[in-house]
Each structure stands twice: as C-alpha cells, then as structure tokens.
Amino acid sequence: MTDQFIGGPTLPQERRLVTEIPGPRSRALSERRTSAVASGVGVTLPVYVTAAGGGVIRDVDDNLLIDLGSGIAVTTVGNAAPRVVDAVTEQVAAFTHTCFMVTPYEGYVAVAEKLNALTPGDHEKRTALFNTGAEAVENAVKIARHATGKQAVVVFDHAYHGRTNLTMAMTAKNMPYKDGFGPFAGEVYRAPMSYPFRDGLSGPDAAARAIEVIEKQVGAKNLACVVIEPIQGEGGFVVPAEGFLPAVADWCRANDVLFVADEVQAGVARTGAMFASDHEGVVPDLVTTAKGVAGGLPLAAVTGRAEVMDAVHTGGLGGTYGGNPAACAAALAVLETIEADDLVSRAREIEKRMLSRLEALQQRDPRIGDVRGRGAMIAIELVEPGTTTPDAGLAARVAAQAHQQGVVVLTCGTFGNVLRFLPPLSMPDHLLDEALDILDGVFAEAAPTDGGTA
Ligand SMILES: *Cc1c(COP(=O)(O)O)cnc(C)c1O
C-alpha cells in the first residue's frame, strides 16, 4: 500500500510546499471541476485533497498545508481521527443503513443518550437526529412551534442558520446566501445582536435593546422561539457581551418563549467548553448541534426538554438518512475522543496560545481592530486604523497570502472583514506557532488597502 492512503495523525506533521499553490495537478482538477460542477458551489482554496490529519492537509501535488479551518469547524477531533476511522469502518462492514424509522439500531439511541447528558442543564431531555445543521435548525423551529402553538421566530443581526428556505429566512446576510433565492419563509423577525466591538453596549443593555424590539415588533404571545448562536459563526465570530445571553434566556423563560441555542458551529468542545452556552451557564430549551459532532460524517441533532420534544406527534419528525448508523458510530467515537483526550482543555490551551500571539500582532498593527473568540474559535476583525470601518480587501489579501504560504484560513463576517481560525484540536503546537509566524509575516508585508501608510 502506498503512502497515498495514509491519513490521520500518521501524516507527517509539517508544512511542506513542493509546488506553487495550487499546483499543476490541482489546477487540472479545477478545469474538470469547472466543466462538471455547478459554479454556484464556491471554493475557498482550490487545492485538491488526498489526505488530512493532525494539523495538516495533503494535496494531489504532495504539498502539506497547515489546517486552520477544520472544514468549517467540523473535524474538531482531527481529520481521519483514529477512533472515528475504526468505528466507522466496523459499522459500514456490519450494515450501512436500515432507516431508524423502519428498523432501528443502538447507535442512534446511544448518541441521543450522550447528547442528553452533555448538553447544558440536568433536566430530562430527548434528542432527534438529522443530517445537516440547517435541517436541525428547521426541526428545532418545527418543534418549538408545535410545542408552543405559536408561530413567530426571532433571530439576530449577523446570524447564520443555513441555506434551506426557512434557514435562509433566518440567516441575516444577503450575499451570497440569499440573493435572488426568495421568497423566504414568513414569521421570521430580526433583533439586534450584542456586538461589543461595534455597539459598545454592555450585555444587559444590548439585551434590553433586543427585547424592546421583540416586544414592540413581534409580541411574546405570538413568539414560539428565539434562535441564537451563543457565539456567532459565519457572521463574524461575534461573542456577545457578558450578560446578554442570560438576559435574553431569562426573558424567554418569563414569557413562555423557547430559547433555542444554535450550537452547530460553536458546540462540541470547539470553544473550550462542551457547549458555548456553558460559558455563561445558560440552559437553552433546545440545542442544535452538527458540525463538530461526527468528525466529518453528516450528522445533526436537536436536543431539548423532554416535554417540548415529546409534544410532537409520532411520525412528525424524521427523514430517510437522519441518524445514519455510520454517522452515529462516528459521533460516539468523537465524543469518546473528546473525553479520553481531554480536548476541552486542549481548546483552552489553543485559545491562550492564539490570543497572546494575535494580541501582540494587534499591538503592532492598528488594522486589527478586534481580537476575539473562545477556545479554538478565534478571529481578528480588520478595519481602517483607528476606526470601525471594515477592511474586507485586507482580509481577502491576507487570506490569499496565507494560502500561498500553505496555511488554510477562512474569512467571515457580515462585512467580509474577519479572518477566522478554527484549528482542529489535534493541531500540534509547533504547527500552530508556525501558522501564526506566517500570519505575522503576511501582515508585515500586506500593503494598506487605500495605498496610504498603515
Ligand atoms: C453551518 C451552520 C449551520 C448550517 O449547517 P449545515 O450543515 O451547513 O446545513 C447552521 N447554524 C450554524 C450556527 C452554522 O454555523
């Protein structure tokens, strides 16, 4: 067997560039892609992958790149993580699918038990499994509407909840997610988010502002649920000011409105806690999980209060593939890995390492307006020095330069001016440090957008 098939942590843990990025084989594949794949599906960095694991991704030209993206916060335990590979291999050799709604299997039940135990709060819970984050969010709304007998849904500025019809309505940003895809689902209302860098409000003040909008424009008696990312993902890794989430959750409880935490990106050890809601002791009525939960196999979940979840009639929830046995085996292996390797602590170590380096960089470079995030979910927001005016051009140039040097980074944010870092928790320190060294160098060389002096 050639090295072609070696992935996971057995891949050499080094950055190694043997061609320009992308190399000739990747460029050839890009040409095939252009004539075969719909152009609406975008690509951030067109290197074609043959293996990944630890902290690296290997491409078809034999380059090794440092992975600060985790496939958008998915391979939290590492790519091709050994326990995941073993569990999935064993499962697919036994059976690949029966449909849980036809003839069920233990893996689904075991994942539900685990998520019921790990999500915030020690009340009685139930879980239903789906395939994608968007599907989990849609089902959380279905359940909340059914349980409350109410219809309205409140979401926030900068929110991202997915690309299906209902979740497009819930997502804030027009381009590229919504433009031309309407009409969107009704009864979705938007409230102002706490965004400390931009609004300067305390958590309680930002919550009061949001609650006033909700009361005046929607009314608690019409409102089924408030859906919020406890740390926003695509919207810019916005960490709400302390006190914002508890105040919104308290208002919901006092007004018979369900509080739904969309933990699809921030959940499952990513932020240095099992769930991002845990940082402020917030106990949501419903929690959605997906990205990090199954190591790259498609799995998503809604977990919540037993009486809310069980309000739905039998047969009202489900789907052909939801809780597929291979994905359930992967999820059990992911949760076991997080516990056995204490990856929650590892996420906190990564936070310390990244924040100290990025804050030092911010001291030297006034174009970095804000450094924020928790655990291995860290971002820098780029602005014109001394202002909050977004500099999306700089973010794009820095990302492109990092890609050229073999570091996979992603951008995000309503204004496109946020660089986000989502290393897998299997990232070795020496690669994380090297990636940060490269970023330092890219910032030192990146010309100011307006051509003036930075
Ligand atoms: C990615 C994401 C979704 C959508 O998940 P998909 O699996 O892409 O459908 C929903 N909510 C949040 C917070 C996300 O980050």
From TrEMBL:
InterPro entries recorded for this chain? 4NH2But_aminotransferase_bac, Aminotrans_3, Aminotrans_3_PPA_site, Class-III_PLP-dep_AT, PyrdxlP-dep_Trfase, PyrdxlP-dep_Trfase_major, PyrdxlP-dep_Trfase_small
What are this entry's molecular-function GO terms? (S)-3-amino-2-methylpropionate transaminase activity; 4-aminobutyrate:2-oxoglutarate transaminase activity; 5-aminovalerate transaminase activity; identical protein binding; pyridoxal phosphate binding
Pfam assignment, any one: Aminotran_3
Tell me the route in metabolism or biology where this protein functions.
Amino-acid degradation; 4-aminobutanoate degradation
Q: Which reaction does it catalyse?
A: (S)-3-amino-2-methylpropanoate + 2-oxoglutarate = 2-methyl-3-oxopropanoate + L-glutamate; 4-aminobutanoate + 2-oxoglutarate = succinate semialdehyde + L-glutamate
Question: What biological processes does GO assign it?
Answer: gamma-aminobutyric acid metabolic process
EC assignment: the record states 2.6.1.19, 2.6.1.22
Entry superkingdom: Bacteria
Q: Does the keyword DNA damage apply?
A: no
Q: Does the keyword Transferase apply?
A: yes
User: Which coenzyme or cofactor does it need?
Assistant: pyridoxal 5'-phosphate
> What keywords are annotated for this sequence in UniProt?
Aminotransferase, Pyridoxal phosphate, Transferase
What does the sequence similarity comment in the record state about its family? Belongs to the class-III pyridoxal-phosphate-dependent aminotransferase family.
Task: Kindly provide the name given to this protein in its UniProt entry.
Answer: 4-aminobutyrate aminotransferase
